[in-house]
């Protein structure tokens, strides 16, 4: 009796937090089919991070961009082999700056030796992102696994439509994340991923040279941006600026920067003026533990949206091609 009541309660909680999204994922998914999966991924990631301190940021953004187009299904890794044109997701200008995707294929090849045909590329992307957060000082997030890889080719149009521009409004931001089951706090927390990494001038100049009156920016910060990105149309795509003061550390510095008018993108600034999001930004800036907790639950929701599970999709043999 006690046991069955317990099961009902667990079912209710799990059912509630994942709902239609990701209900079939499991925390023990690879327990028998690939028991050392998480250790192997961690070991490979640490080797990668040792040679490139900027890699965690790349993996975290890769994960978001995978999940944002057709769900977390590794569609972002497909090359033009499965398309009639060369218009892969990565061709989209919204995917400018995406890097390190070939290292997911590398980890996949290691896992194919350890547990052949078992681990999806979509799960590897999610695990790489979670290790990136942990390695740089962020929370230890436990994510459910069992995503399958897509069997349909995607293209740059789908990426153009679904990936957000740096100047989206708070309403658009909330629409993107509440549709994934996040609440207001989680929607602000997931943007805290911008505690890592950089942005390039192409994503900054529009804000800088077509400033909306409502867009608050610290004066010294603005002069720095104008020096780095001096022309409306960037002469080069090589120049970049840190997302916050500590771009290699996963901390709550992003929110402190945002409060000081030093958020890099339009949306980073907008959350500091909107009355719905400002109190949350303040709270995250004041309480890193609280930010970490909300970020963790937001991350699990992001990782569980529109996933293919069980008989849907496939486990790709190679991450860049449909089997
Ligand atoms: C929905 C609102 C978001 C917008 C408008 C946005 C926009 C951007 C832009 C324009 C860049 C700069 C790319 C470049 O110029 O190289 C960037 C970088 C980045 N974004 Fe976002 N982003 C959003 C949400 C997220 C989320 C949800 C995550 C992860 C969970 C994320 C993680 C990152 C990371 C880690 C970088 C740095 C990448 C690197 O250094 O290579 N972003 N984002
Ligand atoms: C920079 O990248 C953007 C986005 O991919 C592209 O549209 C533009 O042509 C590039 N500019 C230069 C100077 O290479």
From TrEMBL:
<keyword id="KW-0479">Metal-binding</keyword>
<keyword id="KW-0106">Calcium</keyword>
<feature type="binding site">
    <location>
        <position position="195"/>
    </location>
    <ligand>
        <name>Ca(2+) 2</name>
    </ligand>
</feature>
<comment type="function">
    <text>Removal of H(2)O(2), oxidation of toxic reductants, biosynthesis and degradation of lignin, suberization, auxin catabolism, response to environmental stresses such as wounding, pathogen attack and oxidative stress.</text>
</comment>
<feature type="binding site" description="axial binding residue">
    <location>
        <position position="194"/>
    </location>
    <ligand>
        <name>heme b</name>
    </ligand>
</feature>
<dbReference type="InterPro" id="IPR010255">
    <property type="entry name" value="Haem_peroxidase_sf"/>
</dbReference>
<dbReference type="InterPro" id="IPR033905">
    <property type="entry name" value="Secretory_peroxidase"/>
</dbReference>
<keyword id="KW-0408">Iron</keyword>
<dbReference type="GO" id="GO:0020037">
    <property type="term" value="F:heme binding"/>
</dbReference>
<dbReference type="GO" id="GO:0005576">
    <property type="term" value="C:extracellular region"/>
</dbReference>
<dbReference type="GO" id="GO:0042744">
    <property type="term" value="P:hydrogen peroxide catabolic process"/>
</dbReference>
<dbReference type="InterPro" id="IPR000823">
    <property type="entry name" value="Peroxidase_pln"/>
</dbReference>
<feature type="binding site">
    <location>
        <position position="251"/>
    </location>
    <ligand>
        <name>Ca(2+) 2</name>
    </ligand>
</feature>
<protein>
    <recommendedName>
        <fullName>Peroxidase</fullName>
        <ecNumber>1.11.1.7</ecNumber>
    </recommendedName>
</protein>
<feature type="disulfide bond">
    <location>
        <begin position="121"/>
        <end position="319"/>
    </location>
</feature>
<keyword id="KW-0376">Hydrogen peroxide</keyword>
<feature type="binding site">
    <location>
        <position position="164"/>
    </location>
    <ligand>
        <name>substrate</name>
    </ligand>
</feature>
<keyword id="KW-0732">Signal</keyword>
<dbReference type="InterPro" id="IPR002016">
    <property type="entry name" value="Haem_peroxidase"/>
</dbReference>
<dbReference type="GO" id="GO:0006979">
    <property type="term" value="P:response to oxidative stress"/>
</dbReference>
<feature type="signal peptide">
    <location>
        <begin position="1"/>
        <end position="19"/>
    </location>
</feature>
<dbReference type="GO" id="GO:0046872">
    <property type="term" value="F:metal ion binding"/>
</dbReference>
<feature type="binding site">
    <location>
        <position position="66"/>
    </location>
    <ligand>
        <name>Ca(2+) 1</name>
    </ligand>
</feature>
<keyword id="KW-0964">Secreted</keyword>
<feature type="disulfide bond">
    <location>
        <begin position="67"/>
        <end position="72"/>
    </location>
</feature>
<feature type="binding site">
    <location>
        <position position="246"/>
    </location>
    <ligand>
        <name>Ca(2+) 2</name>
    </ligand>
</feature>
<keyword id="KW-0349">Heme</keyword>
<feature type="binding site">
    <location>
        <position position="73"/>
    </location>
    <ligand>
        <name>Ca(2+) 1</name>
    </ligand>
</feature>
<comment type="similarity">
    <text>Belongs to the peroxidase family. Classical plant (class III) peroxidase subfamily.</text>
</comment>
<feature type="site" description="Transition state stabilizer">
    <location>
        <position position="61"/>
    </location>
</feature>
<dbReference type="GO" id="GO:0140825">
    <property type="term" value="F:lactoperoxidase activity"/>
</dbReference>
<feature type="domain" description="Plant heme peroxidase family profile">
    <location>
        <begin position="24"/>
        <end position="323"/>
    </location>
</feature>
<feature type="active site" description="Proton acceptor">
    <location>
        <position position="65"/>
    </location>
</feature>
<feature type="disulfide bond">
    <location>
        <begin position="34"/>
        <end position="115"/>
    </location>
</feature>
<feature type="binding site">
    <location>
        <position position="71"/>
    </location>
    <ligand>
        <name>Ca(2+) 1</name>
    </ligand>
</feature>
<keyword id="KW-1015">Disulfide bond</keyword>
<keyword id="KW-0575">Peroxidase</keyword>
<feature type="binding site">
    <location>
        <position position="69"/>
    </location>
    <ligand>
        <name>Ca(2+) 1</name>
    </ligand>
</feature>
<dbReference type="Pfam" id="PF00141">
    <property type="entry name" value="peroxidase"/>
</dbReference>
<feature type="disulfide bond">
    <location>
        <begin position="201"/>
        <end position="229"/>
    </location>
</feature>
<feature type="binding site">
    <location>
        <position position="75"/>
    </location>
    <ligand>
        <name>Ca(2+) 1</name>
    </ligand>
</feature>
<keyword id="KW-0560">Oxidoreductase</keyword>
